Amino acid sequence: MGIDESLNRELPSDLFEKERVIFAQWRNRQAPFAADGQFIEDGIVHYPTYSRTYPKLLFLLKEPNDSPKVDAAGNPQDRDEWNLAAWLGQGALTDPLRGYKSWEVIARWVHDITASNQTPLPWADIEKQIGQHSVAERVAQFRKIAVVNIKKSGGGGNTNMEQLLPEIAVTRELITSQIRLCDPTVVVCGGTFVTYRDKIAQEAVKPNYTPRGVRWYLSPEIGIPVIDYPHYTYFPHLSPAVKPAMHYGLVDAVLAILSPTVPGGGA
């Protein structure tokens, strides 16, 4: 997915140019770590929708779901480049290799967290309303968010941290630059909280906990609340009895953190 197609995200020209600069520097620094040169862009899915949404959610993830390809001799092969933000803006339904079935978890979170009356739907309703075949509803929710992967070349279901950590050591300020460029209200870490705090922002800050025990802190590096939560791909494999609790756990946490009536909240 090239630059022209990513313009469907309707980024303002100045924001688009700043993003180009960050990505150009990132490609160069990533080159020693990505044997096939793949670089998957991400960011704000649809700027006009994102800019008028409250709260503006940025999901901080590890890497795109796009495993490396090798030939019969084990040599790396080129992979297609695509834009994660633009793909989400089309409903995230086109390629099972990219984990499209799991993205409905994020769409459901976004729906309930950004509800204008801040009243989440009953679980049976949200599960029915946002599923794999609800393309228009998925698009509507994805257009409200930004997504940033701390590694821009694709990987599989489990991230190799021994490979990831040396890479983010040379890209970490670009990661925080991209987050600041997106200007979110809240950063939701999908299994990246400790990596962000300790290795990217390098902040020794004691975390807070919401009344229901979800860990978070206000990051001095970006001036934004950062929430610790499991990666969205865990949820489709959970027992039906557990899924609602995990859904409302994040919804409740974001609303609590942003509430001035909660100790440590109102960030």
Tags for this model:
Uracil-DNA Glycosylase, subunit E, seven-stranded mixed beta sheet, two-stranded antiparallel sheet
Mean pLDDT: 86
Task: Kindly identify the CATH topology of the domain at 3-95 and 142-230.
Answer: Uracil-DNA Glycosylase, subunit E
Number of strands: 9
Spatial arrangement of strands, main beta sheet? 1-5-2-6-9-8-7
How many DSSP H or I helices? Answer: 10
SS class? alpha/beta
Secondary-structure topology with pairs:
Blueprint: H1 3-6, H2 13-30, E1 43-44, H3 47-51, E2 57-61, E3 69-70, E4 76-77, H4 84-89, H5 103-113, H6 123-129, H7 135-142, E5 145-149, H8 161-182, E6 186-190, H9 193-200, E7 208-209, E8 215-219, E9 224-229, H10 243-257
Helix pairs in contact: 2-8, 5-7, 5-10
Describe what this molecule looks like in 3D.
There is one protein chain. By secondary structure, the chain is an alpha/beta fold. The chain has a domain at 3-95 and 142-230: Uracil-DNA Glycosylase, subunit E (3-Layer(aba) Sandwich). The chain contains ten helices and nine strands. It has a seven-stranded mixed sheet, sandwiched between helices. Strands 3-4 form a two-stranded antiparallel ribbon. The mean pLDDT is 86.
Offer a quick outline of the entry:
It contains ten helices and nine strands. With about 270 residues, it is an alpha/beta fold. A hairpin with a 5-residue loop joins strand 3 and strand 4.
